User: What shape does this take?
Amino acid sequence: MIKHFLKDFKERFIEGVLFLSSTTTSILVVLIVVYLFKEGVGIFNRTPVAEGSELLVSAANKVNKLTADEVRKIFEQEFTKWNQVGGSDAEIELFRLDDITNYYTDEQLGENFENMPHCIDTILMQHPNMIAFVSKQYVLPNGRACKVSIDKIAVKQVMLGNRWYPTASPVVELGIWPLLLGTIWVSIGAILLALPFGLAAAIYMAEIADSRIRKILKPLIELLAGIPSVVYGFFGLVVMVPIIQQTFNLDVGQSALAGSIILGIMALPTIITISEDAIRNTPRAMREASLALGANHWQTIVRVVLPYSVSGITAAVILGIGRAIGETMAVLMVTGNAAVVPTSFLQPVRTIPATIAAELGEAPFGGIHFQALFFLGCMLFLLTFIINVIVEMLAPKKLKR
Amino acid sequence: MDFQTRKNMKEKMAFGALRLFSFSIIAILFFILGYIVINGISVVSFDFLTKMPEDGMTKGGILPAIIGTLCLMVVSLAIAFPIGVFSGIYLNEYIKDGWFKRFINLMTNNLSGIPSIVFGLFGMQFFVNQLGWGDSIIAGSFTLAILVLPVIIRTTEESLKAVSNTFREAASGLGASKWQTTYSVVLPIGMPNILTGLILSMSRVSGETAPILFTVAAYFLPQLPHSIFDQVMALPYHLYVVATSGNNITESRPIAFGTALVLIFIVLVLNLLANWLRKVLGSKVKMN
Amino acid sequence: MILNKVEAQDLHLWYGDFYALKGINFSIKKNTVAALIGPSGCGKSTFLRVFNRMNDLIDNVSIKGQALIDGKNIYGKELRVDELRKRVGMVFQKPNPFPKSIFENVAFGLRVNGIKHKTYIEERVEKSLQQAALWNEVKDKLNKSAFELSGGQQQRLCIARALAIEPQILLMDEPASALDPISTAKIEDLIYELKQEYTILIVTHNMQQASRVSDTTAFFYLGELIEHDNTKKIFTAPDKMQTQNYVTGRFG
Assistant: This one.
């Protein structure tokens, strides 16, 4: 009896351990979502004023609420009068911290600038039409100056804004549109380049090549998938980029095209493997029926096999796009990383993953920039999640197998 | 020309084109490999493999990066392999098809679809900051482990699925319990394929950069780690650094080629090993 | 009265919606060989697998009625499946040795049942291999992989593997169907020998084999037990027309 008890206990215990292991992936997905979104969605709870800074106006000024865009235009001197933002028709006077020396001497400010808050407060008193952009530490507590309140960062600003300046001052700009577009351009370009080659190779391997050649090709395709992305990036940097620069006579060869070519090569194994599986899944009977009617092999492939496997091939293409969207290092190295809305494949572009990789190291922990990069991570997560769902819906046959 | 001849000529041309496209892919592969081998081979020497980087990474060797990458490979798979294999066993041997299995499979698929840079973000936030491990081998390894976990789960599941049911029936027919059947009969038969998955995961880990950027990789750290809580250099990140943002990119180009060659060599060896394992160990056990 | 060794009382079995066994009543005495015959899909293999509860491994199986060994219901709550399977050995259609040495294959059942005594295991392995008429062929290569044996040898190894845990009942699911005629003859001789110590249920497609090795024969058709009687009677003068048709169609 005790023997049986021990045996049963051991069985249950092991089953418990196995069960817990199997829940790991689910727990991880939940954790990733929580940690990513907690930080990323945090940007919508902040004002776009640069980290640790404050905008002040004189108490006499009736404008004490501005939009981020207005602030930017004011400091870029696009707006020069207060009436453009709903105030009096007085000229706007700008004040940045550097300007303090125009008003006070070093002695007056004190050895450790301990008089700074007071001085700034006084300047604002004396200049009713001034707007000041200063560090938080120099804002006099209970001072007479008035803090300008700025709306929190809006979803629309981020999603559709086409300027990505996460470290700009006085207000940051977090429009992810150019990054989103850059990512999509490069990925779609990659698939357009890879599809003819990938599909050809898939058909060749599934239908034409004899098993001897297949046995050689298969591991080579696997090897193509195994080469680290940073090596692709390096290769792209030293080979592709100069070629593109010379061919198209550009100032820099780093471009969307370079990214697409490299990503296209990297997407090949995914496209080939999944399309090949789909092609192979065509029932023998369909093939034989076509051949028996006098169609030759090529006609059978075009008219029977490919139409039959079209959902699998579509899944392969979408999965390829998904991989390309998430690819970081290779893209980072060859696309030139200019955060502008792309207009040509020969221009530098910047993708979402490349932005995260390039900027996270410099973004202060927990700051707006940091959170904005996490928000990019959220977007990336959502994009790939949607793609996965589409693929799962497209390939029910594969799931059932 | 009659219709049949034209039809067959069309076929010949189409097949020719398919062949050309397929082999051009292989040509690209060999061009990439060849280019790096030719440019890197003169750089790689005993000193290169065993010395610290010198002169702003324009001279010297890449020893700390090699050691760092090896550490990451070993630790991350020590984490992911048992969990992955256990979970594959549970999914294939223990639970019946149903909502739970579908749910777990869906989550595993989702996890494998997440881009590696997102793992980097998560690893930084969770392992480095939340758990307070800082930039360290352990934080980087856990992040990489998440990345390869779905691969290991899936290869395990598929390897076990390929094991003929007669073995399970024979074992349980002799009074073996579920675990005894799994452990002493099913698992050994599936092992060659599971090990192949393990090796391919190692290859994957060796080349991943994005997940380690913010969890472990050091820009320049000319010393070897003492514990898993130390930061290390890693080959892929080192390649990125010397290729794009080193102090002197032109002068460190040979170092970059050498590093790329070492990386490719590791990947190549692991891929060959995996193929060999599949062939040799796989053929020993004939599955009915 | 001699108690029935193996018995089924009004046994029904479903695979999901599929009604596989429709109220079977069946019994055999100790130390006899019963052959189960019938066309493919008639339920004979399913019925065989009832007695070591191998059907438990399949999803969606439900059972009604009773299956008894030594008069005890083997689907009762107090009975442990692993204990049952220790008493009921099984040999499968295709030889399926484990990817282990010959010795370890035979010792497997002992080890998983918690036996660690080395000399005892060695004795049992030798005894079982002798009973399976394989000892002389393999005694010098016990540590070689079981896959090095021929198909017929592998099947006898599987029989030895089943015998090692000293079952009382042997279930054989077409044990010779994948083998050549010489190996088949060896297995049939073996079954005849084993009858002295074991009660045997054997599923077979081969009418000659059924008539050669069994004491009683049960004819299954579409999930029903049509007739169960002395083998000689089934093959010469069955009561039911369906049996007659089947055995003559296949046997004559």
About this structure: The longest strand of chain C covers residues 18-28. The mean pLDDT of chain C is 89.
